[in-house]
Amino acid sequence: MTKPLAKRVFIKTYGCQMNVYDSARMADVLAPLGFAQAALPEDADMVVLNTCHIREKAAEKVYSELGRLRKLKDERRQGGAEFLIAVAGCVAQAEGEEILRRAPFVDIVCGPQAYHRLPGLIERVRRSERGVIDTDFPPDSKFDALPETGAPQGVAAFLSVQEGCDKFCTFCVVPYTRGAETSRPVQAVLDEARRIAAQGAREITLLGQNVNAYHGTGPDGSTWGLGRLMRALAEIEGVARLRYTTSHPRDMDDDLIQAHRDVPALMPFLHLPVQSGSDAILERMNRRHGIDLYRRLIDRLRAARPDLALSSDFIVGFPGESDADFQATLRLVEEIGFAQAFSFKYSKRPGTPAADMDDQVPEDVKAARLDELQALLRRQQEAFNARCAGRVMPVLFDRPGRRAGQVLGRSPYLQPVFVDAPEVKLGDLRDIRILAGHANSLAGALVTAQVAA
Q1: By the 8 A CB rule, do 441 and 417 touch?
Q2: What pLDDT, on the 0 to 100 scale, is given for residue 139?
Q3: How far apart are CA 134 and CA 117, in angstroms?
Q4: Least buried of 174, 315, 424, 450, by fewest C-beta within 10 Å?
């Protein structure tokens, strides 16, 4: 068999952790074609933009990047070399033909359910087809077609277990770009987890647009929820930590709450988006839950795991949001208390119901509200980090620090922890005494080392 010619691919990832996982799998799909990964687009023979459609002006950022890539493509063509450009991910799914109309030099457009077909799409381009598009939702799961092996992800790895969403929040494009909720079979998830653990991963984060809606088919034909899956994953040799994101309050069931109590490997940090503190706005968002349900869930989770810390998502300035609605969000944040959070101004997504709603909130009002909310969330994060000072925490080290001898790890609460300890190796899980809590990180020292009083 002829060995493929050496090529290089540069994959730029936008957006969520699911896209980070997808980009790694794209690299796995392209490896048998002879593509190694390049550090820069200038060093590559192919560039893939793995796009996200959630953030404001996401598509325009992609077109701006394509403008820069066009110059590279023109230079390569003048030298007689191949330079392929592919747009993948959610912008590709949503924009499709529009991408080729605005950027006809793009070779491939493929949605998030079609990237496993990249080898065939490349072959079509090489047969002189221009602007190949694949945004179909296949009848079979793409995971069945992905390689069983892949490049190591490192100490902390992502594992996609669920895709799509059936909730249809009025602001969200996910049901249109990722499709309906689907869950991978239990055995496929366990097999992949064992593989990445054998490659050195000690922490695995399970991914899904609605990950706690997981309902995979078990080996015996029964349906497993996320709590049962967590218990099985915790038994895998080498797996010290488990996390999951992103969740929906409606799918936080009893078994998953009990898993937070019973599974030591499941970290005491939960990202549970609420979006607003106003029932009226939640109804307009079609969130399918109210504030009372959210409060009761938090109470039950904290009863199950008293050291649990929380993260959430907030949207301010949703159509119809009054001053009273926004004040309700501030009150909820004060009441619950968050260790981290993500907050954004509402921005229209074409094709979503909210984009056509009346009473859009003026931009200056949205900006002022976001500033006030973020100031409150920032104070809570800084206070949480400050309270960590003096505590001893297990820290999983996954990368070198900025200075010689410095290593960086993650606390159970996902905070970056910097330690001067040249003897620590990446992958070590060590007890660290936290010396100081900063705005976005912690500083610590090995408990075995002499700590100045």
Answers
A1: yes
A2: 54
A3: 8
A4: 450
Position 53 scores a pLDDT of 76
Instruction: Say if residues 138 and 180 touch (Cβ distance below 8 Å).
Output: no
For the chain, residues with pLDDT lower than 50 are 1-3, 450-453
Distance CA 337, CA 345 (A): 21
Q: What was the pLDDT predicted at 79? A: 85
Q: Give the whole-angstrom CA distance, residue 415 versus residue 436.
A: 12
CA distance 437 to 415: 10
Q: How far is CA 65 from its chain centroid?
A: 21
Instruction: Please list, residue by residue across 2-35, b when 16 or more beta carbons sit within 10 angstroms of its beta carbon and e when fewer do.
Output: eeeeebbbbbebbbbbbbbbbbbbbbbbbbeeeb
Closest CA to 193 of 145, 153, 142: 153
The answer to whether the beta carbons of residues 189 and 227 sit under 8 Å apart is no
* Model pLDDT for residues 340-377, shown as the tens digit of each residue: 999 999 998 888 999 999 999 999 999 999 999 999 99
Sign, CA torsion 116/137/230/312: positive
N- to C-terminal Cα separation, the chain: 66
Question: Which of 121, 103, 101, 41 is CA-nearest to residue 76?
Answer: 41
Query: 398 phi and psi, to 5 degrees?
Result: -130, 0
Tell me what pLDDT residue 2 has.
46
pTM: 0.85
Q: What is the DSSP string of 157-217?
A: EEEE-EE--S---TT--HHHHT-S-EE--HHHHHHHHHHHHHTT--EEEEE-TTGGG--EE
DSSP letter at 346 equals -
